[in-house]
Amino acid sequence: MDVEFTARQVHLSKALRTQAQEGMERIGRILGKAARASITLREQRHLKIAEITLKARTQTLVGEAKAERFESALRQAIAHVELQAQRYRDRHAQRKRLPKEEKVFAAPPMGRPKTRAAEPTNAAASGNGARPVKAKTAIAVHSFPVRSAVVEPHVVRSGESIALRPMTMEEAVKDAEFRDRDLLIFRNPEGELYVLHRRRDGQMELVEVP
Q1: Which DSSP letter does residue 25 get?
Q2: Mean pLDDT, residues 77-96
Q3: Cα 208 vs. chain centroid, distance in angstroms?
Q4: How much is the pTM?
């Protein structure tokens, strides 16, 4: 995996570079070697901040952590991105296992059983005077269309998908990835309302509310 380092007014030691490369190799085994990562280390007052932005084929993962040491902040950011990568892999595998709608066929209706022809009875044909044998009556079985069970949707109320402060589109994408949410409603600095959601193919779609 290609890893790009950015150190803002801090010294990037060899130990930090090795720690970051080992973490990105673990994530690369989950998402594939085609992913690219950008790691930024900066300092804000007494806190050390590590920010990771990882771009896969159809997904962008963002992890940020703050600690008193760069080693701890980098470890927490890597763990957060690795958890997102595992969830993305599980969702992708689950979508592959689901059958497509056009491949699901309804159960074939039950066919009518063939009726056997009634055997002719002729008492005179038997010379020993045996009783005539009654013909068996065939019963036709009618089939009815199979009714699919109706499942009522389970609705859960949640307010975590609404941003409380105005933000740009880039900030909204990072906030949705940080919250690990597939839907985010936010306003831009001009006050316009937008809906950001993740489609089934994994891409983020931006909808402007009129």
Answers
A1: H
A2: 83
A3: 24
A4: 0.45
